[in-house]
Amino acid sequence: MDIKQIQDLIRFVSKSGVNEVSIEQENFKITIKTNQVATIVNATIPEAAHHAAAASTAPAATATPVALAVEPANDTSKYVTIKSPMIGTFYRSASPDKPLFVNVGDEIKPGAVLCIIEAMKLFNEIEAEISGRIVKILVDNASPVEYDQPLFLVEPM
Asked: Most Cβ neighbours (<10 Å): which of 15, 45, 81, 97?
């Protein structure tokens, strides 16, 4: 991901009203969190790419207000992360008047519908691939999600 793509992503996140976006690639991880005051970007760049990006990063720092921060490490190693298989809008129920697919504490089995992701007017049911218990729901209802963005933490059974 180059600096132009990061700047475009920051603009998109600030306009969309999303509170947090995380993107992980093989050698690159970026988390953008927004609030009413500032935009926080957490990025891990491999050492080889760091030298190449250093020259292009300096001019961008003056153009876009970005603060680098370090998140506290949470021990989630015992949990399985269910990630978004596509870009779209995350929904916890089939419609506003229908019950939620899952809640924190619910036990799930393979094939159980966890959520819906709307992409290009198509509603895609996301199903569990493992048995377990929902520990945390990482995305707010009706929020945009990115490909491979964590959606749920599940304690395997």
From this structure: 45
